[in-house]
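Reading group handout, session on sequence-to-structure problems. Before we discuss, look at one worked example. The prompt was deliberately terse, the way you'd type it at a terminal:

> structure Rod shape-determining protein MreD

The input record follows.
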Amino acid sequence: MRPTLWQTLDQTARRLIPFGLSLLLLLLAIVPMTTPGFLRAGPMITLLCVYYWAVHRPDMMGYLGGFSLGLLEDILMNTPLGVSSLILMLTQMVVLTQYRFFVGRPFLITWWALALVALGAILLKALAIALLSGYVVAPGPLIASYVLTLLLYPILAWVFARTQILLTKEP
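And the output record:
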């Protein structure tokens, strides 16, 4: 039996929610917020989004979604085009090739794995930016970004888990 038009639209909308939520978080993350005495560094929001969906629902955010988020991030953050896309797609590839490791694991294990993935991602991104633009990022903002990324993950994971529950409910 073929699905009706409304069922098809509903399924399409549900599949776009992870990307749309990730896009919204990216746009919120680029809003300049400066606090005196703090480094100008923020968490790697798109990495958190792509990592979560690759671990828990790889069917909801494919390589095209990661590539698109990365490209938009590069444009908005004025980084060399393709660097963020490469990092996000490599993140997806690492998670998907080790998917059996992630299935059914407790939150602390996936958080620990994120710490490893995020460390590799931030170092690779800093290296790529240095090679492509000649601009060397100071270690302070890199460390701050890494720590903020790890601290923000439990909050975003909770939000994404609630979203995932809503996505699996029948209309």
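Points for discussion. First: The chain has one domain: 41-168. Second: DSSP finds seven helices and no strands in the chain.
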